[in-house]
Amino acid sequence: RLDTFEALENEQKLLFVFLFFYLFLFFFHQTMGELQKENPDSRVIRPQPGLCVKTLSEPDKQKVFVNVCQSNAVPAPPQLSREELVELLQSDDPSGYRVPMSLGEPHTETDNSSQGCTAYDVVINQEFFQTCQKDPLFQQFIILVSVEGLENKYNLELSRDWKVLKNRKFLGSLSEQNIRTKSRPVIEELHTQYVPQFSLLVEPPAGQPQYLTAEIHLPGVSSCASLVLDVGEDRLVLTARPNLFHLDICHHLVIDQERSTAKPKRPPLTLKDPNVHL
After folding, report:
1. Cα angle vertex 69, ends 65, 75, to 5°?
2. Where does the sequence pass through the membrane (predicted)?
3. Which domains does the chain have, with CATH numbers?
4. Are 241 and 265 in contact (CB under 8 A)?
5. 23 pLDDT exceeds 70?
């Protein structure tokens, strides 16, 4: 009789656990259904792991991991050949080529040294991810785009001295993400680019010029990582991405491009070009 009583008690426990789990799943699906109704232009996806990038936050030098994930639910970007990618990276405004991606919320993880760190999940189209894996240039490009996307969304500054982990495709645990299902307009209004205030100073002021110093004021630019600078013999082109400032200066002097230097100051950016010739 005692064995029979214990068996019945165990069956009741199992039945209770089953009912609890069933009710949990029921209310979970009900809640997710209500969320879908509230936001019909989005859907929940579970991405697949891709590659894991280790970098540092600036200026506090804290470890940050970027999980570049893949999913067919994310639209693919326009087709791009290797030659077109090279031209894009050398252009004045590479932000004209947009890669659809989903940027997840930061989550706290533990690295191999049992130290706390922050990880972000970025999801791109699966086919495009596979293309990027076949070419190191494409891989570096998608990492750059992912890092810049996180910087813009979360107001971060991340080091460009990153490392792709060989034996790890993901740090942490894969979580679901909510992505848009309604496409944005193909043609979007671009933000107006403004010409920043600048000044040119020839040194010395009299006699044969030796240096040409340009001071450029860039309010709202918090990181040099968003600047694209092109120095020619008689021309200076500076763009602050994304679409904040654009400066194109032509002058009558000839400068030494290889020895030109640029350094940020508060408030202006200073560019110094040596060996100026009339």
Report:
1. 135
2. 12-28
3. 42-180 (no CATH), 198-274 (2.60.40.790)
4. no
5. no
pTM of this structure = 0.53
Is the pLDDT at 37 greater than 90? The verdict is: no
3-state helix, strand, coil in the chain (%, to 5): 30, 30, 40
Query: What pLDDT is recorded for position 167?
Result: 87
Residue 29's pLDDT is: 47
**pLDDT value at position 190?**
36
Is residue 63 a contact partner of residue 111, using CB atoms and an 8 Å limit? Answer: yes
Q: How far apart are CA 222 and CA 215, in angstroms?
A: 16
pLDDT at residue 189, rounded to an integer: 36
* Beta strand extents in the chain (DSSP E only): 42-45, 48-56, 63-71, 102-103, 107-110, 116-125, 163-164, 177-180, 198-203, 211-217, 227-231, 235-240, 245-250, 261-264, 268-274
Measured distance CA(35)–CA(32) in Å, rounded: 5
Long-range CB contacts for residues 135-138, cutoff 8 Å, separation at least 24: 135/82, 137/82, 137/85, 137/86, 138/82, 138/85
Beta bridge partners of 116: 110
Answer for the pair 42, 32: CB distance below 8 angstroms, yes or no: no
At residue 191, the pLDDT reads 42
Alpha-carbon distance 52 to 136, whole Å?
A: 15
| pLDDT band for position 80 (cuts 50, 70, 90) | confident
